[in-house]
Amino acid sequence: MQIGFKLFAENYSPTELVRQAVEAERAGFDFVEISDHFHPWLPEHEHSPFAWSVLAAIAASTERIGLATGVTCPTIRYHPAIIAQAAATTQILSGGRFTLGVGSGERLNEHVVGQGWPEVRDRHQLLREALEIIRLLWQGGYHSYRGEFLTIEDARVFDLPDTLPDIVVAIGGPQAARLAADLGDGIFTTDPDASLIEAFEQAGGSGPRYTEVPLAWATDEQAAAESAHRMFRFGLGSWRVNSELPNPAHFDAATQFITPDSMREVFACGPDVERHLEVARQFSDAGFDRLALISAGPDVDGFMRFFTDELRPRLSELST
């Protein structure tokens, strides 16, 4: 099992995210995972930097820790040829430490380029074509491709790493699980749902199983819950809704009935290491082996110390 740290790009500046990645390496995390959005989720969030620039800076500032996108949508805001090039370059700059996490996206980020927001079936087909293009370009040489939605013409990625990055695919049901099995090297999800892993494996898939563990450390439980509410209340909504809302004001309206007490039901809030282990264990018991820990509390450096001194020694108790 590997333990990662979630770089929550919507809440921190680019330079702060790089600093946190350096601290995560020092604290003993195995990897960092960064969200790749154009907009933040909520009005309280005041950031959303270009993830690929942040990844390049992290690659140059660290030596050991893995890097991953969690996740990139390579279909509308980005063309997959650009992601094929960006991921290959990031793999080279990081010395082979990069994992490309991909998904079918949210309206929040993709509608900004004025291409509309497709229905679910078309989003899955777009992602399939995007992954076929990325795989094709990673073979080297010039290639053309014409799909139902996406096209490349006489394209080549010139700088390819000796070892290609793994591609992990965000899944939420059987259709995405089949896509991940066909074209991915692993899966990514935010739910402790063993049936998603089962669907992936039944479709012939194998490889790392990434997830995010909702934690909010603080010396005071109420302060932790309030911080989690400010930063992550959007996460308690249904993904069928979250994927369709266009801007932070809509997420603010959709989450108006979620309270700090609601956050306690999902997030480990406060200083109790046993509660943090209890939440993490849901994911390890479901079969996930790449746990990216969310720090939704008000003190990132305090969480790093908590991880090093108390939580990390206990995580060996979790099954994989």
UniProtKB/TrEMBL annotation:
Q: Name one GO molecular function term.
A: oxidoreductase activity, acting on paired donors, with incorporation or reduction of molecular oxygen
User: Would I find Oxidoreductase among this entry's keywords?
Assistant: yes
List, alphabetically, the Pfam families matched.
Bac_luciferase
Q: Which UniProt keywords apply?
A: Oxidoreductase
In this chain the Luciferase-like domain maps to: 8-289
Q: Which PANTHER family match?
A: 5,10-METHYLENETETRAHYDROMETHANOPTERIN REDUCTASE, PTHR43244
What name does UniProt use for this protein? Luciferase-like domain-containing protein
What species does this protein belong to?
A: Serinicoccus hydrothermalis
